[in-house]
Records
---
Amino acid sequence: MMMLRRLQLIDFRCYESVDVRFDHGVTAVIGANGQGKSNLLEAIGYVATMSSFRGAPTEAMVRRGASSAILRAELDNDGRDTLIEIEVVPGRRTRIEVNRQKLSRSRDLLGVVRTTVFAPDDLVIIKGGPGERRQYLDDTLVSLHPRNQAMRTDLDRVLKQRNALLKGARIKGSRGRNDPEMLATLDVWDNKLVEVGEAFVAARRDLLAQLEPVVTQALADIAGGNDQVGVQYLSSFSETGLAAALAEARDDDLRRGVSTVGPHRDDVGVALNDMAARTHASQGEQRSLTLALRLASHRVVTEATGQSPLLLLDDVLSELDAGRRSALLRALPQCQTVLTTAADLPEEAHAGAVYEVRDHHIAPVSSPSIGGTPGGDAPDTTDGSDESDDSHRDAGPGPGPETMTGNPGNDANGPTDVDTAADPQTLEPVIDLRDQPSAPAAPNPVATGEAAP
């Protein structure tokens, strides 16, 4: 079982410095809207996927006026300590280290820690366009196995190259569309698109087949009743295959300068009791169905990998009535969970640690035992900077006021680090990782192939 024990942030979003320890069960962060509760969850998600689940660009991760952002996560992975350190520098390649070993590719981090994110914006999975539903599927595929990210990246690369070629031909007019050299190059990219595209579509279809019965059960767990959920893959090309579809669409593609068929044009039809959920379901039904889709993906990933992803609930409780809140919390699996809410925290949450965000300060509401250790110290109060923004500080536990000092290094050769061997009440200044011993603190799960099944 993977557990996030501690997260340290320097100049991430609006955090000047934050140090948080998490309960092995539920850690709750409560507070009014606009106080920045989501920043903590976004940081956890970034450590897992190297992207923001809110869709923000990389440069937005760095606090205004800072040169870089540092994220440092300590995890317990089936009894093995894992340390993830990330330095984000706008305009430069992000630096990642796992147990003090540098990763050459960001996708090598995938699978070290998995997350399932529930967010209010998830409603677009039902109400939004095809791209939202494709992203839901593709993100779940990546959670199942990191190799799916490589296939996803290859597909994006091939489409980008093919579209650039088509655009160039369109600009040149009839001369470009009839250029033998260009047409020969287009044949090459068509073959590559067929190879990776059909493989990716097959993976999507297989995932949908796994998800459908699980979504129906998850909806029953959340909303009750006997509603039936149907999910259908809607392909942009016929059953004759992608190669035939590309050949048929070639003239149109050359005229328009874009690829009009392929996995990037596909959709997922979601039906509730044989009626399109997007147009016929009520707002409440759509919200319950969205939660069921997220819960189903979590269950499928857990079953396939043998490891329950970390649950991140970003203020979804505030969007639900009391009955659905209670039902959702009862339906959640018994795994580590971090949730934020602007509403009253239901008793069913059974939070082991609770913090309140108010006026950009975080204070413990209770003094639970952190990490399940009897008699643990009460969480501390952590302050952030005074910048006004939609996302502000979150807190961390500890035996007393805890502060990170120093500024992240501005050296492009490596990220900075916070020394956890320091006295718990006073962290050492940030130091350059190049000064650290080369031997890792623990085996690298990426290098040993243990990060994902």
---
Amino acid sequence: MNDHQNGKQNRILVVDDHVEIRSMLRMYLESWDYIVHEAADGPSGLEEVAREHPDLIVLDHHMPGMSGLAMLTLLRQQGHTTPVVILTADPNQTVAVQCFRSGANDFIPKPFDPDFLEVVIRRLFRLRAAEDRAHRAEVLAAAEVRAAQLKDRLLLRLGHHLKAPLQQSLGHLASLARELRDDDHNQAARIPLVRLLESAERLDRMINRLTDLALLEANHGTLDLQPYDLAKLLQRARANVLDELQCRQVRLLERFDPPCMVKVDRDGFVRVLTELLANATALSPHGAVVQVAVDELPDRIRIRIMDSGPGIVAEELPSIFFPFSSSSLGESGKGVGLGLAIAQRIVTHHHGLLEAVNNRDGGATFMITLFRDPPARSFPATPNP
């Protein structure tokens, strides 16, 4: 049975000046389902290598004119890495050393044992397959790293080039909207202008979040870990989502005893709490309650933010923290699915965990797990959301 690679039969080149040996090798190799090519000497062997690109070469040691080792040396000098098995009538230690120094992968004494030849060939094909898989994995990993770097660079560059003209446009639109606000004759023109201004503001927020995400992925800056009272951090986060809370008449309930101290980067962690509170508010019905509870353990602290909504669709849970992945039950298309991705990456920079689960009695819980005394780690400066 052939060691097929990528669905094709492996090709073996036999180079030997004795036609009887070539015929015998062809018989065995074809019975093992290999495709066989032949050459009677070194120069014709080199031509076959260039023309057929074999997957393995069985090469006679002693041949008139160009010897097997001379041909092998030329192949290696030309950069060929094809596995080579040397057939030799002198199976001594000196010959073995010469074969391996010339670049042979194995050698077999003449007269050869067909079973031993099959074992050697199959082993070399398995080794080559393993090397190819490892090489492909390395190439793929390098390509993924490069792609991520290019993506982050592109996002940062796009954010930089779009930010200034967008800010300028926002300023002009806001100025026009103010001018038309008290002009009773132009109220019809003011309505589409206000909608355009709201769209521009949403685009500005998206660009800011894309830039923040790119900075997080690129791992810029350092964490400034200090002990803070969680209640005060929540107060800052609540102020950031106050409009949403009031609009939906959602009440925030803190179920823990202050002071509850956490060692975090203040701005980064307020950003996390802001994103999670905004998400919980969006998922909760009007007039509902969003709860914040804390479990203090010897080696960690767990912060749970629980909404009163319908929960997260089960199919969406595994990808809820992916960029541009937003819950179909959430903001009704207002967001672009970056807030939770940003929060997850900030928590990761704290050597923590951010998880989402559905509650048995309805709603969803987002759990932040922070381990006590985490090591310092690079982290981007976090702007206000």
---
Amino acid sequence: MGSVRFILASLVLLSHLGISIAGLNPGVIAVVAFYLLAGHVVAGLWAKWQRQPKALFNFYRDRSWRIVPQYSIAAIFAALLWHNGAQSPFISAAPALTDWLANTLIIPLNYYMYTGQDSFTLIPPAWSLATEIQFYLIAPLLLSQRLSRLIICLALSLVIFALAQSQWLNTDYYGYRLLPGILFIFILGALQQLSSRHKSLPRLLLAIWLLNAAYLLWLIIGQAHIPYNREVSLGLLLAMPLLAALSKKKSPQAHAPADPRSHAPTRPRSHAPRGNAYTPPKAGTDSHAGAWQPDQSQSGFPRWSMGTRKAASRLDKNLGALSYGVFLYHFPVIWLLQLQPPVAAAQDIASVAVLTIGCAALGHGCVERPLWRRFRPLKKPS
């Protein structure tokens, strides 16, 4: 799912450069997909950890080491740019101690609509990160409940979401940003993770997806568009089947048992995979990595080699490693380019994208990986 997360983070970046698609904000669609993915991932983690010693401590430690290092570096970077004269509506107010505290704790950023915190937010999209953190805080409690109680929580959140869609509550706040109204999206991701163990869940997920599709069609036909009802609905419409497809692809029933020391399924060493027999390279040919060769003999279409699949998996993981940094660094990069106009225009997509990816790579390689190697449990409980 790494490449999917990278694409979603890139859509958030594009939306903050003022780019829309058919009048819709692609960043909102991406954030909704992030909510769904977060629920799916956390349900998988907690299912593995909940019966382990110190499960709650290990869960919160893992989430903290996942979130805090890169966020801290990005916030310090943004603070230095503000100190050197960067200008933006998001850093326009003279900060008080409470502003610095809010940016440090992250969660208060989610309530900017009531506190005015968006006038000094070092990482402007961090309000959605704050929403995810609040879900992480309650996730162990939620996911330890019986399935029926989890579905009740989903239904209660759906009621709040429906009130927001009908404008009894603020549609933007309770239909997109605040946890009570969008908790059901996280739970949908968790239910997708649990669906292989509960036969009724696929039908429930399909029913919710169809209901959402009908609602989106009604919004389009009725030309009803208030921030951000169409984007949230479209995000669910696209992300739910995508997550289902990715989950099915990674399902253990579809693969050989995995060697815990390797990301590749184990195979008997004495047998080559059918249809992909290894051909020793001829003299003078490139034998780099000793890759399996694609075989077209049976269907006429190439069956991708083991080496190709490993390369694709490695690329997917590398893109996933960059996605969080892309999400965090693109606003500071825009402010940096505003301070250095001879270098590149702050609204130039290529300049912002290249520098953002560079910052994300440096942050991951120089900050995250060394800290994770020492403090974050890399081997998840089985």
